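User:
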Amino acid sequence: MRWKLIETFRAVMLTRSMTVAAHDLHTSQPNVSRAIGQLEAMVGFPLFVRLGGRLTPTPEAEAFFQSVQRWFLGMEALADSARQIREVGSGTLRIGAVASLAMSVMPEAMHAFRLRYPDASVSIHTGDSATVAKWTANRYVDLGLVTNLDDTPGLQSTLWAEENGVCIVPEGHRLAGRAVVRSADLDDETFISLTQGDGTRAVVDAAFVPDRRRLTLDAPYSAVICRMVSLGLGVSVLNPLVVRHLDLAGIQVLPFEPRVNFVRYILMAQQQAPSVLMRVFVECLDGM
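Assistant: Predicted structure:
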């Protein structure tokens, strides 16, 4: 059956008037009358009769109308589904993040995001920068949050923020009262580093030339390093973002020179149109 005929029949059933139906459908009354006649020929029974000058649906028309209404409700549900996908995406937000960002900004960003989309499904995955980049390029995740860029193809990156590193020492340490800690001040200090191969470690190590630190302890996560410093196991230079969000007792946070540039990026796949969920989450990251 032709869509136009069904739509015309429904309009007449709802208005009980071919004239009003024609107005609602932006057509003429003769066109509506002709469409009803064509539909009657197709279904094989009369749809309307005139009783006392009023247009009255037949019992067959009333029964047929129930099926038409169910069909229209189904079409409206499809339209609503399409609108939701268009505005929100699939309804699931997948985020890949390096551990330092997942353990620092993610909880607060997710709290802000949930205030706007409390029922959205969110999945968080952690890995190093190279792994998160590959996940993003392959669209295993919708957004990638990294601290280093590599040559992974198929990505578009946005600089999220950059900050100078800070030196952290235990409370009561000989350097705790300094206005600024310089790299030479850490000569002979037990320095707790990120593990070898971490891109951020290379950035920190470049600030120590010549290097006279005691490099006998390293750990894979900044949060672990902060805790070890608070226990007096050594000192470190870390991303201020992580230190700020962990807010651990027992450490002193001091400005550090020379500048150690800690950057963070937001990754998306190339030519990927961001969904509303993606855009809102990025807004929640702003300022963190």
